[in-house]
Amino acid sequence: MPGVIIETEGEFAGWRRFDTTDTFDALIGPFYFRQDENGRTRGAFRAEQKHMNMGGRMHGGCLMTFADIALFQIAYQEMEGSRGVTVQLDSTFVDGGYVGDLIEATGEVVRAGGSLIFVRGQITDEGRTLLTFSGIIKRMKPRG
Amino acid sequence: MPGVIIETEGEFAGWRRFDTTDTFDALIGPFYFRQDENGRTRGAFRAEQKHMNMGGRMHGGCLMTFADIALFQIAYQEMEGSRGVTVQLDSTFVDGGYVGDLIEATGEVVRAGGSLIFVRGQITDEGRTLLTFSGIIKRMKPRG
Amino acid sequence: MPGVIIETEGEFAGWRRFDTTDTFDALIGPFYFRQDENGRTRGAFRAEQKHMNMGGRMHGGCLMTFADIALFQIAYQEMEGSRGVTVQLDSTFVDGGYVGDLIEATGEVVRAGGSLIFVRGQITDEGRTLLTFSGIIKRMKPRG
Amino acid sequence: MPGVIIETEGEFAGWRRFDTTDTFDALIGPFYFRQDENGRTRGAFRAEQKHMNMGGRMHGGCLMTFADIALFQIAYQEMEGSRGVTVQLDSTFVDGGYVGDLIEATGEVVRAGGSLIFVRGQITDEGRTLLTFSGIIKRMKPRG
Lengths: 144, 144, 144, 144
Fold this sequence. Notes:
Four copies of one chain form a homotetramer.
Chain A: E1 4-6, E2 16-18, H1 24-28, E3 32-35, E4 41-46, H2 60-74, H3 76-79, E5 83-93, E6 102-112, E7 116-125, E8 128-140
């Protein structure tokens, strides 16, 4: 996976993040990912003011963006060496997130087929579920 | 609707936008809205590099954020004087958006009930559909 | 499309339906389809007691089944000569349907790609919207 | 829960099912439910020819109907003494089911709020996942 670096300092030392500037990912991130001891993907970031809506709760768009990025990280092994695009992402908002909280994403690959990968997951805030999501990634045929 | 200002200059003169700083809306926007001659909500923004993913296409998170904000603008009249939260937002990604393009959102209130408002819509890029979405807003009881 | 016959009598004379017995389609149908003057697919059936839940309203499962079948009929032209399977169907229930009512389905192909077809639609009951739906059909490669 | 009986014979002896005739539930069921040793709801039925589509696989409408009914059974405790309606049901079809197979549904209440109950689940066929679903139940205010 090109463009990924391992954080060396701070709360997320040892976690990977995209090495990117001047993109949507850079603007609202960084979001961090790593594999846990069981090989399952875990995503995390610390909620900042910039992630909040005008009511002081985490913006739904922030949650969905985190989910969309997590989708590919959860499907990490199935995607190895190939590219893909999200074709569907269904989001259910169950609670609100706040500044300073640790926001985490986990999930599972329901099925990885030849052309489509089905993923489900959830985003939590200090243990409270904020968002559940279900997504489909379509594998892209390699160029060339 | 407090916190809304009318743009006075440039491409979106006459359109309204949120008067906000230091929020997610401010970070990735501004997104512009207005009512067309038939009273239907139209949203728009000009795609910038900051809205792109690492592959040079508009980030799914940007599209979903625009959809989430448009949801409430489309339900503008039904929401008048009350607040609400998104409880569901289903997104189907049908095509890619690019820097410099005019991105637009339109939609319809399918039904406005006493507690839930059902909205459908689409985001287009110069006429090409990028995203279709379907969402549910839950009305919040006024604090008091 | 093999297995389709044109109804010759009654309310749906001139409409097509599946020529099937001993299937789920036969059990809960027949559901009728035709193209309107603009070439757009229209589905319809007359609500019977067998379509109702224990509360006397049309069962959500009946609405979703009608939507699933309509999905393929709406994508009729794009599917010509090929087979497909539903990979995603999102359903929003906005109102209740009742015995004796004319239930109709309409919709549009949002995009027909090489492998996926995106469809949106709605089911109405005498003009009232009962269900909005959004689905994805995956084309199956021909056997052989 | 009125209208429920406990099956006394056959494969599903000890499971509960709706005591209903002349409804959609009766037409395509019976579907069986019970609580497992941990109090979690488990649904099941034996796939018959009547559940199949014209291609010999379980009809998507059958799977979604089973999911819709399971939704309320999974939320069994939270619904105790009250009624509700499905407002959203998102379905992802991941594999096909066949005649003679044991079809099972399980799931979890993600959150039970004052007006909305969020449920996720899956339907399996002899261990293979056929459908994942995510739904929202809206509590109905008691009449009277």
